[in-house]
Amino acid sequence: MAEFKGIMVYGEIAEGNLSAITTELLGCGRRLADESKEDLLCILIADQLGETPQKAIAFGADKVYTVENPLLKEYQTESYVVVMEKAVQDISPRVLLMGQTSVGRDLAPRLAFRLGVSAAMDCLELDIDPETKLLQQTRPVYGGNARATFSSDSFPQIATVRQKAMAPLEPDKSRKGEITPLKVDLDPAAIRTKVIETVKEEVAGIKLEDAEAIVTGGRGIGGPEGFKELEELAKVLKAAVGASRPPCDNGWVPDTMQVGLTGKIVTPELYIAVALSGASQHLAGCSGAKNIVAINRDAEANIFKEARFGVVGDWKQVLPAFTAKVKELLAG
Amino acid sequence: MPMNMIVCCKQVLDPEAPPASFKVDPASNQVVPPPGVPPVISPFDEQAVEAALRIKDSQGGKITVLSLGNNLLRDVVKKPLSMGADELVLLEDEAYEGGDSWSTAYALAMAIKKIGEFDLVFCGRQAADWDAGQVGSGIAELLGIPSVTVARKVEVADGKATVERVIADGYQVIEVTLPALITVSNELGEARYATLKGIMAAAKKQPTIWKPADIELDPSQIGAAGRRAKLLKLFQPVREGKCEMVEGDSPAEAGANLAAKLREAKVI
After folding, report:
1. A302 touches chain B (CB under 8 A)
2. Euclidean distance between CA atoms B62 and A299, whole angstroms
3. Would you call B240 an interface residue with chain A, using a CB distance cutoff of 8 Å?
4. Which of A82, A110, A280 to mutate to test the interface with B (most CBs of B within 10 A)?
5. Which residue in B has a C-alpha nearest to residue A331's C-alpha?
6. Whole-angstrom Cα distance, residue B40 to residue B200?
7. Which chain B residue has the Cα nearest residue A264?
8. What are residue B59's phi and psi, to 5 degrees?
9. In this structure, what are the phi and psi dihedrals at residue B82, rounded to the nearest 5 degrees?
């Protein structure tokens, strides 16, 4: 049996560049590689990779493996899993890290089952046990109510990592590394899915993931009209508008506005939670915010346990005065 | 064309139970079930049932529900029947306890093989307890069929399913050959309520029970014995935050005071 060695990052490409999660994984992977005195490997898969392999080296990789093929233009489970299966067999990494993204949450389990190993999804912390060199994976469970630490003894140990849970390194263009193309034969007939169309449902204004400030509404907002008032405040603060699950499920706002375990993970400086209770699955998406401010009429609402500042009261009466005062303060 | 469908449904602790009632027993690394809060079908799994029912509504077919566990509550696991599913198969035995994604997907895949003919398998995108989201993809891999995960819409025509898959900034329309496995996300919309007629029909139906030997499971691969992920520790994260409550003589004044407080703390 091959010796398993190295920490491998599965890199994602977005619009010709390394995606943010890839630089985060390389930052985390670098630490794990240093702790276990092994190389940090990165695999990049696309139709065209451009300058991304050099960038992966600048962000910390020692060796980059590349697979370029027109069949890999878009992510599809069955083509990508074949490439990753071959890569793992050829390279035998001890640890494989992926992002908890649309791609990673689909690819990681399929690959794990193909290889006969286990995967830990949506990890927040990863550590190497100094004695066994095994990866210990800590992830939220029970909708964020608890955390669990897992390990496994089959290789590679696969983990997906939550977006923004790890910090990237400062890129260093002078870093040296190897780039090795991998050859993988792909049979188009074996791919049983076809991507007909990719539809972007961008919300107008500032993207939630990039926003420094976010105003989020919950079930208590009561309908689509209420979100217009949140937009007022957002405009004043140059903030994005988000929602917890109930407003999305009720069709008041688009699903792409959902913050939470199954929506977007955000880490703004300021997060204003209006009329939302603070269910664990929502907090899973916003607990990385620096300052959470809550307005809720229920003093017992869970959101106050996470918030730094709070007002107990009906948002319909609290918010207009709050918005007006914020406007006045920012203008002055 | 009528579709032969299978939906996997997991009985879980109610994820809507108040967070304050959530307790972990550190000695056993297990969650202590909150008293007086009955378990439910994992909400994404209910939506998987809904996805299958919508196809049954439009073109007919049969829906078999599979649930795995031990001492499953009949009122809970029969809910998909009362929503309109046709049959219920329970993989119920103490040997199924303590499993992980691997042993669960293995047992469900073997049960699906025993059921035999099917066009579509549905699962929730992840279970509301362990939130891993692996079992659906695992079943598909073990059965050697294609999978599309995190679906918000599923339609079937001409031996193919067209699936809208949720991605970060929108969705993708994906066509997949049948048989296929699809995992369903909350964007599909709310699952329907059980009707009185459905509840009465479900009460009369007896689930089929399959023990590990009935589906030719390798005992070393079932439940806790078949785990590939070792649970080292289960714990509740410590919340250190203290919330400073801002008050006022009226709600409006409290709102204005909050803005002033945020400025004072240099948050805005």
Report:
1. yes
2. 48
3. no
4. A110
5. B268
6. 19
7. B168
8. -135, 10
9. -70, -20
Question: Cα(A185)–Cα(A83) distance, rounded to whole angstroms?
Answer: 8
Residue B2 has pLDDT above 70, yes or no: yes
Q: Which of B138, B174, B244 sits opposite A309 (nearest CB)?
A: B244
Tell me the fold of B3-226: Rossmann fold (3.40.50)
Interface contacts (A, B; CB < 8 Å) = 273
A219 and A151 within one domain: no
Task: Give the domain-ending residue among A160, A190, A220.
Answer: A190
Report the C-alpha gap between B70 and B92 in whole angstroms: 5
**Separation of alpha carbons B230 and A160, rounded Å:** 16
Whether residue A22 contacts residue A99, with contact meaning beta carbons closer than 8 Å, is answered with yes
Q: Which of A5, A166, A53 is nearest to A99 (CA)?
A: A166
Asked if the Cβ–Cβ distance from A147 to B234 is below 8 Å, we say yes
**How far is the C-alpha of A74 from the C-alpha of B33, rounded, in Å?**
43
b/e per residue, A51-70, with b = 16+ CB within 10 A?
ebbbbbbbbbbbbbbbbebe
Task: Assess A121–B contact: CB distance below 8 Å, yes or no.
Answer: yes
Q: Report how far residue A255's alpha carbon sits from residue B187's, in angstroms, rounded to the nearest whole number.
A: 7
Closest CA to A161 of A248, A32, A62, A72: A32
DSSP string for residues in A240-279: EEEE-HHHHHTTSS-GGGBBSTTSB----SEEEEES----
Distance CA A101, CA A93 (A): 21
The reply to whether omega before B179 is within 30° of 0 (cis) is yes
Range of the domain at A317: 208-331
Of B148, B190, B241, Cβ closest to residue A308: B241
DSSP B2: -
Residue A164 near residue A265, CB atoms below 8 Å:
yes
Domain with CATH 3.40.50.620 in chain B: 3-226
A60 and A151: one domain?
Answer: yes
CATH number of the domain residue A119 falls in: 3.40.50.620
> pLDDT over 90 for what percent of chain B?
94
Q: What is the pLDDT of residues A115-149, one digit of tens each?
A: 999 999 999 999 999 999 999 999 999 998 999 99
Match 């709600």 to its residue by tokens. Answer: B251
Phi, psi of B4 (to 5 degrees): -95, 115
Tokens 């891993």, located at residue: B132
Residue A305: which CATH number? 3.40.50.1220
Q: Are A283 and A271 in contact (CB under 8 A)?
A: no
d(CA B140, CA B105) in angstroms, rounded, equals 9
Residue type, B149: T
pLDDT in tens, A205-257: 788 988 999 999 999 999 999 999 999 999 999 999 999 999 999 999 999 99
